[in-house]
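Technical note accompanying the year-one report. For the benefit of new consortium partners, we illustrate the data format agreed upon in the data management plan: each record pairs a sequence with a structure-token string. No post-processing was applied to the example shown here.
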Amino acid sequence: MKVLHLAAGNRWTGAAAPAFAEVEALRAAGVDAHYAYVGGYKLQAKLEHHDFAHPLIEKAQNPLSFLRTIQKLDRIIDQHGFDVLHAHLTYDHWLARVVIRGRSIALARTFHARRVVRRDPFTRSLLNRTQVCCVINDAFALEDREVVFTPPPVDRQQFQPTGANARALYDIADDVPLMTAIGKLSKGRGFEAALQTFAILRSAIPTARLMIIGHGEHRPALEDLTQSLGITEHVTWAGYHEDDLADHYRASNLLLFTARGSDEGHRAILEAMACGVPPATYPLEGVRALVDAAHIAAASTPAALANAAAALLAREPLREAMVQRSQEFGYARAAGRLIEAYERVI
């Protein structure tokens, strides 16, 4: 079986990371899988040493760039003879649909966000010629179509419970209860709720600290909020991390998860669990497929999340249970889901 995944995102965040992880998972399972992405950004520097990753999608999205990308895709399809093209975003879905015309190639699509699960004529046209529809969040549904739930694959070589942790980088002692929140520091990404939750928790756990992983334009406003909540001295701003992200998860006792990201598969929950870190989450779409009820707040409020977090912290160490649960989302299971879906249509 030969498969080409396409993702027209220009950053590692969003659809690019889970799409690439699916390619790695398929290759680990013996499938000749490749990845086409947008060249010319930092993403290319991250991926260019992989001979199965190809910067074929042009940066601009206009008719001429579309045609040039089609020509590049034509060449790589002729070279490798792919059985399946798997698109991850609407732009590359159109690319895939055009390039497979006249070819015996199956078309698959993963929906990474609620906003792109539409019923408009253009989406219907794409879906009419798509044999496999995947959703990264099990709450997503497509009218009159069967969907395959494909949660973000977790690289358990990178995200594992053993290894270094980042506490020493921030002078955080080993016995300090450390909560973590992660994501882009933008409005609407739930950091206000995470800070308010932490402020409530500190009233019961005075030695607790919060580490925020990520960067973004909203940080000054969040820093102002820490001052008004009286927690400024207890919040660590760790910045953005990729290669040593697992070290930061392993430093934590608990992940506070309060909002969906640009990719709505809630990947941070799965990565944290693979590192042995229990999540406490708002009752967001799709989280019930990832964790049991004890990890989900009764309501989307800081008080409810603080109650859930406190209960988790009071339980016996959950590291082993979290690692065990994360195996359901590792590469082997991810590849199995995709291969089964592909084999039904080729």
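Partners are asked to follow this layout when depositing records. Residues 236 and 314 are 23 Å apart (CA to CA).
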